[in-house]
């Protein structure tokens, strides 16, 4: 099965390919992706941005389009960065810039004030028709400084308490078992499976 990922983020494409593993799913960018009009992710929720993006790009491709909107939610910051996670430190900021801003904002916070969760809403669409919208989340705390070289985005400061390691310190396979994106993608694979079709088709 081929899925086209509506994203210009190389880290996200790499992670989805790792998640696909042995599932016989081929993940690629849509043909001429950079020539397709950009979808503006300006909705107030992850679900609206995810579904809107999948529907938008499905107009330009006959195959299944997969899109997600994901981000870090810190309750003590009023839910920030939230849907603005990728733009938290400005439109041209790097992952390191965004992480530095987050740590500055949380510098005086202790214990439960540092609790956070990742959210991922993943959608699939074909020819302007939504097929599924699913979500996954992961609980953690924000570390006081970056740790680890893996992953991308806020991974170096998102600490899984039960492991005592950040996303960026975990081996990819273990990270995917915990991660918000891994949980959502496994639901997508089920929606696309013969078992789902037999039950709900």
Summarize the structure.
The chain is α/β, with parallel strands linked by helices and 201 residues long. The chain has 6 helices and 7 strands; from the N terminus they run βαβαβαββββααα. The protein has one domain: Maf protein (Alpha-Beta Complex).
Q: How would you portray this structure in words?
A:
- The chain is an alpha/beta fold and 201 residues long.
- It has one domain (2-200): Maf protein (Alpha-Beta Complex).
- It contains six helices and seven strands.
- It has a seven-stranded mixed β-sheet with strand order 2-1-3-4-5-6-7.
- The longest helix is centred in the first third of the chain and has 13 residues, at 46-58.
- The chain is globular.
- It starts with a strand and ends with a helix.
Number of helices: 6
Q: Let me know the number of strands.
A: 7
CATH topology, which one? Maf protein
How far is it from the N-terminal to the C-terminal residue, by CA?
18 Å
How does the helix and strand content classify structurally? Answer: alpha/beta
Largest sheet: 7 strands, mixed
Query: Architecture in CATH?
Result: Alpha-Beta Complex
Total domain modules: 1
CATH class: Alpha Beta
Helix content: 25-40%
Q: Helix-strand pattern, N to C?
A: EHEHEHEEEEHHH
Outline type: globular
Could you tell me the radius of gyration in angstroms? 17 Å
Strand order of the largest sheet: 2-1-3-4-5-6-7
Mean pLDDT across the residues is: 92
Q: β content, as a range? A: 15-25%
Features:
201 residues, 7-stranded mixed sheet, 30% helix, 24% strand, 6 helices, Maf protein, alpha/beta
């Amino acid at each position: 099965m081929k899925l086209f990922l509506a994203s210009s983020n190389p880290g996200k494409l790499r992670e989805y390919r790792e998640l696909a593993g042995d599932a016989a799913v081929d993940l690629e960018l849509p043909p001429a992706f950079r020539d397709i009009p950009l979808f503006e992710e300006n909705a107030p929720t992850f679900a609206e941005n995810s579904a809107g993006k999948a529907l938008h790009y499905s107009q330009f491709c006959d195959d299944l389009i997969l899109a997600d909107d994901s981000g870090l939610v810190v309750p003590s910051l009023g839910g920030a960065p939230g849907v603005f996670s990728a733009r938290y430190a400005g439109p041209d900021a790097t992952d390191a810039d965004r992480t530095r801003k987050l740590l500055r904002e949380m510098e005086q916070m202790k214990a439960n004030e540092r609790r956070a969760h990742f959210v991922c809403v993943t959608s699939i669409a074909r020819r302007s028709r939504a097929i599924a919208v699913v979500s996954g989340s992961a609980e953690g705390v924000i570390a006081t400084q970056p740790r680890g070289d893996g992953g991308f985005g806020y991974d170096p400061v998102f600490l899984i308490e039960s492991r005592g390691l950040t996303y960026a310190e975990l081996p990819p396979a273990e990270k995917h078992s915990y991660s918000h994106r891994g949980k959502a993608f496994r639901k997508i694979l089920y929606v696309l499976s013969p078992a789902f079709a037999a039950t709900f088709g």
